[in-house]
Amino acid sequence: MAARTMPVMILVTYRDTEVGEPLSDTLAALAREDSVTRVQLTGLSETDVVAHLTGLTGAAVDAETAAIVSRRTGGNPFFVAELSRILGQERMPDAVLGAVRVRLDGLSHGCREMLVAASVLGTQVDPAIVASVLGWPLDDALSALDEAVRSGVLSDPDGWRFTHNGIAAAACDWLDDAVRHLRRAIVNNERAGTPPYVAMATLDLARVLARRDRPGDADESAALAVSARAMAEELGMRQLVADAEALTGPSALSPRENEIARLAAQGPTNRQIAAAVHISVRTGRRTCGRSSETGIVEPFGDPRPAGVSR
Q1: What pTM does this model have?
Q2: How many Å apart are CA 101 and CA 109, to the nearest integer?
Q3: Segment 253-276, tens digit of pLDDT
């Protein structure tokens, strides 16, 4: 058969989040051709993730593990393969974080700043809370969210959320920005009178400081985790209590000692703490001295979280 009469198939791939005007015009023209077939690729299903992990590891993978990997990767085959190397660990593989950072670097500065704030507030993105944390008008936060959706970083079928956990982890790696946003989130939610969000932001800040690991960060992280645990216990947020204990270990203090530790972490004066829990300053010093033995706070004479500069 002559070469010019041989059947030929041309396969073209592209990211639907990176379609510029020339490609858009070309796709519109090709759509009119009967011989052109477009196939949209999506992430692997949980069943496919099981098969992929089994093939990569050579061992059976249970449904719970597959569900966790699927949620963390969004079914991206490359991310699944990288995660298969460190099954059972909490961290994201460096190759995944590196690939995600390349995508994030292509976004505008405002969009990246929005993603950092969103990443430390949870996997689901509330534009009103993000705008409050950043001190932005709501319209600016919504514009940044729209850019993130167009880039495939966020999805919005049932409310904005990260398409997979690797994106949130990579965004949260801009740790200095994350610390700044979380401190602002705590203050804003205290002013708004929303204690559950204060507790969650406090624990998130403890986690981020533990990861940043600069001088004083570990001590402040421990104090904040205790503070978050005490707030969570008071609010009946059992999962948050468990998450805080994962950082600090079970509390060795009585409820009153926990309350004093929580107040001390917020930085009031000795007399303010004593008045808040209806005890004398002397009793407060003695009680908080016991708390300081656990490494939670410094003695009652200095109510700052341990390691926090004056």
Answers
A1: 0.48
A2: 13
A3: 555 555 665 566 555 566 666 666
